[in-house]
């Protein structure tokens, strides 16, 4: 048990939770105290040295908390009642004492602004994707080279993170192998077969990469030393810093966002843009290298089929499936529908 500012608290309670047990201290004040004294927020009271506990005690003595805060609030309410103010009368009658002044027009303006901003942002992203797809369609060879160099650079970043920043080996290896699978989609770039095994595997790896790295960065920080097995490093650390734990550095939100944007999402997003490169470039299905223009045998016109866009091919495929299902159930008549696109 630890005696802290007229309160006895168990040793296993984290310092952040222990500070919030005092009346008048919330999460923000407790976090500021921990930051000022360079205490990790999840460190337990039993792990703090006597010097650190004394510093916490001194910080608490500077604040108006517990009985002093109760007395100050009661005195303020009594003063308001004696003065006959609106808040004092409301306190005396036990009614809400803060007059809530609602605003109607400004919140509506805010909602309209949010909707307009989201709409413009969506249109801007769509326009940017369309422009990028046009660039990919016009400069296919250059785009393929850029994507290949991009994959190589990201794999190099993973290696540096593994060697320098001690990232997990298996997870880094899995991410690098995933980018190797992404690179296999560049064989017939920008032609992409939706039924290709490499493409399906890439879609699965994108989701798996995101989940695994998200779980990795969501883990609580680990101590620098293994305190369950004392060693010379542990003894030196204890002699220098006392019994308080020292944790590995935790990456900031901006660093995590940059990692996800560059090393997890960038290449799949670029491949997605190439998938939407243009209706005149990407066929919907590819059975081989010559599937973009084969001689039609079922329609009997003897002409080559034009390249069909991804969207058009998807709509035609869905509509043909509906007609075939209806024909099998006896709802629609026989014959296949001619494409309206």
Automatic annotation (TrEMBL):
May I ask which residue range the UniProt record assigns to the signal sequence? none
Major site of localization recorded for this protein: membrane
Gene Ontology cellular component terms for the protein in this record: COPII-coated ER to Golgi transport vesicle; endoplasmic reticulum membrane; Golgi membrane; ribonucleoprotein complex; ribosome
Q: What are the TM regions of this chain, as residue ranges?
A: 108-131, 151-177, 189-214, 256-277
Pfam families found in the cross-reference section: Erv26, Ribosomal_S13
Compartments, as annotated in UniProt: Membrane
Gene Ontology terms: biological process: endoplasmic reticulum to Golgi vesicle-mediated transport; translation
Q: How does it sit in the membrane?
A: Multi-pass membrane protein
A molecular function (GO) held by this record is: structural constituent of ribosome
Q: Which UniProt keywords apply?
A: Membrane, Ribonucleoprotein, Ribosomal protein, Transmembrane, Transmembrane helix
Describe the family membership recorded for this protein in Swiss-Prot or TrEMBL: Belongs to the universal ribosomal protein uS13 family.
Protein name, please? Uncharacterized protein
Source taxonomy lineage?
A: Eukaryota, Fungi, Dikarya, Ascomycota, Pezizomycotina
């Amino acid at each position: 048990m630890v005696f802290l500012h007229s309160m006895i608290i168990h040793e296993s309670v984290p310092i952040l939770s222990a500070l919030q047990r005092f009346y008048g201290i919330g999460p923000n004040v407790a976090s500021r105290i921990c930051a000022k004294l360079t205490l990790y927020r999840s460190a337990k009271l039993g792990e703090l040295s006597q010097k650190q506990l004394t510093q916490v005690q001194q910080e608490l003595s500077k604040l108006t908390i517990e009985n002093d805060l109760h007395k100050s609030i009661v005195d303020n309410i009594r003063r308001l009642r004696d003065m006959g103010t609106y808040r004092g009368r409301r306190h005396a009658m036990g009614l809400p004492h803060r007059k809530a002044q609602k605003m109607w027009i400004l919140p509506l303006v805010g909602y309209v602004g949010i909707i307009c901003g989201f709409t413009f942002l969506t249109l801007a992203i769509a326009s940017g994707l369309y422009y990028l797809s046009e660039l990919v369609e016009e400069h296919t060879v250059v785009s393929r080279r850029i994507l290949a160099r991009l994959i190589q650079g990201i794999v190099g970043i993973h290696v540096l993170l593994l060697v320098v920043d001690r990232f997990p080996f298996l997870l880094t290896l899995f991410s690098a192998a995933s980018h190797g699978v992404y690179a296999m989609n560049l064989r017939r770039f920008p032609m992409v077969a939706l039924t290709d095994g490499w493409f399906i595997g890439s879609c699965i790896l994108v989701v798996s990469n995101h989940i695994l790295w998200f779980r990795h960065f969501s883990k609580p920080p680990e101590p620098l030393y293994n305190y369950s097995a004392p060693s010379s490093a542990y003894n030196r650390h204890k002699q220098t810093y006392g019994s308080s734990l020292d944790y590995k550095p935790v990456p900031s939100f901006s660093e995590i966002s940059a990692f996800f944007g560059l090393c997890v999402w960038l290449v799949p997003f670029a491949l997605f843009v190439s998938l939407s490169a243009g209706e005149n470039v990407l066929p919907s299905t590819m059975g081989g290298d010559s599937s973009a223009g084969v001689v039609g045998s079922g329609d009997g016109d003897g002409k080559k089929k034009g390249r069909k866009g991804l969207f058009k091919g998807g709509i035609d495929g869905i509509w043909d499936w509906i007609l075939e299902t209806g024909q099998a159930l006896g709802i629609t008549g026989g014959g296949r529908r001619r494409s309206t696109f």
